[in-house]
Design a protein that fits this description.
2 helices, 5% helix
């Protein structure tokens, strides 16, 4: 039987101190595959992936910057398009042909995000379309994509639509998540409110078929909403049955910090999004603004691990840890001291940005992947043990996943990582400034789980 949320929050630190402290971690071993190029015949940008939890399948997505197909929403020729690829994650071979998910007949696309929905075995994709509105504003485009098996009879696109296509305000950075219990879909996005100098963040809740469940978009930036918020992300937390929204904020009293909010996966009786209290969850270990956060629910301890970078990645980055309390406020409290995952100064040894996290439950490790520009150029990574701390042996300038001839953009959504249980490996996708989108497999071969897992896990 799983312990209650309150019990888990109260005792997670004690459980880790008494049990994980006794686990002497060793240097990890791993293998790295050669890169697989997804779409060599055209120029691409940005990259995302979602792992199918019912069959051995992964959906890779990228933006084709020289699209020649029609947009599924309008039927018009697209200037740029989100393109999808079904792959077998074990063999890294393509299944079927690439296909257009959404396109923009009026300009470029940016800030691509994708997630898998295990309730209906489909994928949810969102992207921002430049110049899509009659006013020239940027508009969200969304789509639900069938699994490969369903696509054989019904085609790959289950539904595609635009949101607020007549807006005069810009939407930008997007993130999506799905509830594994009711299948509802959460969309969050940067938003430029009328009359405000900075950016805000909004949220929308859909059912699994793409029907809007709330009355309208909801502002998620509760702390000083007239100031600037950037780089939103959202995750579903199955143990708590809530979405976790995380972003960096620009407080009037300090440099940029990381804040988070729990959001319930159903609206209230009046069709309103139900939010907890937005709270700051990171400290400023260095005298620089923190940004570009990512987070994961640690499957080994039940706490949440976040990663951030400083000064747009020039001053390294930190790992922070927190627990979530019970409804309705879902109070977030620090569970371990914040620590660096990369020490840097002025871009030396590396400038890196947008750390991403995923967990390998078979080997007891969590990966932080990030781009790298400095001593070397490409994609780097760090491996954490089940307690969320860096495993021994890592170089000061990160493990090198792949070195690239051209840089990987510091912008959002140019790289991502997910764990695939079928191949028991991490799949890391990245897009280079040379117009290529590639995938690399990282397979951990060492075991970092203690012998008696049930004796120390908090769940």
């Amino acid at each position: 039987m799983k312990k209650s949320i309150f019990t888990r929050s109260l005792f997670v630190g004690l459980a880790m101190a008494s049990s994980l402290a006794a686990v002497a971690q060793t240097e990890p071993t791993f293998t790295i595959s050669d890169p697989v190029n997804l779409f060599a015949e055209t120029a691409t940008k940005e990259a995302g992936l979602a792992i199918n939890e019912k069959t051995s399948e992964v959906l890779f997505v990228t933006i084709d910057t020289a699209a020649i197909d029609n947009d599924p929403i309008t039927g018009e020729p697209a200037q740029t398009a989100v393109t999808g690829f079904y792959y077998d994650p074990v063999t890294l071979t393509q299944k079927g042909d690439p296909f257009v998910i959404v396109g923009n007949p009026r300009g470029s696309l940016q800030k691509l995000s994708v997630t898998y929905n295990p309730v209906n075995d489909k994928y949810f994709i969102a992207v921002a379309a430049d110049g899509y509105s009659p006013s020239g504003a940027r508009v969200p485009l969304m789509a639900i994509v069938n699994s490969y098996a369903d696509s054989q009879a019904n085609g790959p696109i289950y539904k595609a639509w635009s949101w607020d296509e007549g807006t005069a305000q810009n939407y930008q950075d997007t993130a999506v998540a799905s509830s594994s219990k009711n299948g509802n879909l959460m969309y969050v996005s940067e938003y430029s409110p009328a009359g405000e100098g900075g950016e805000g963040v909004i949220g929308l809740l859909y059912d699994m078929d793409g029907n809007l469940l709330v009355n309208d978009k909801t502002r998620l930036d509760q702390l000083e909403p007239d100031r600037d918020e950037d780089d939103p992300d959202v995750y579903y937390l199955p143990e708590n049955d809530v979405f976790l929204f995380i972003t960096n904020i620009d407080p009037s009293t300090s440099k940029n910090r990381i804040a988070a909010t729990a959001i319930q996966p159903v609206p209230d009786a009046n069709g309103n999004l139900q939010q907890g209290t937005m709270q700051i969850v990171s400290k400023l270990r260095k005298d620089f603004s923190a940004g570009h956060p990512s987070a994961i629910e640690n499957p080994f301890t039940g706490e949440f691990i976040g990663a951030l970078d400083y000064d747009n990645g020039a001053e390294g980055g930190d790992i922070f840890y927190f627990n979530i309390g019970p409804a309705p406020n879902y109070t977030l409290t620090e569970s371990q001291p914040q620590i660096p995952y990369l020490e840097a100064a002025g871009g030396v040894p590396l400038n890196q940005r947008h750390p991403r996290l995923a967990a390998d439950t078979a080997h007891g490790v969590i990966v932080i992947s990030t781009n790298a520009n400095g001593n070397w150029q490409g994609m780097g990574f760090t491996l954490l043990g089940p307690d969320g701390h860096i495993l021994p042996g890592r170089p000061d300038d990160l493990y090198r996943l792949v070195e690239t001839p051209t840089s990987i953009s510091n912008d959002a959504n140019y790289h991502d990582v997910k764990y695939d249980p079928n191949s028991k490996s991490f799949l890391i996708i990245y897009a280079t400034s040379g117009g290529f989108t590639n995938v690399v497999r990282l397979s951990v071969t060492s075991d970092h789980l203690p012998a008696d897992v049930n004796g120390w896990m908090v769940y």
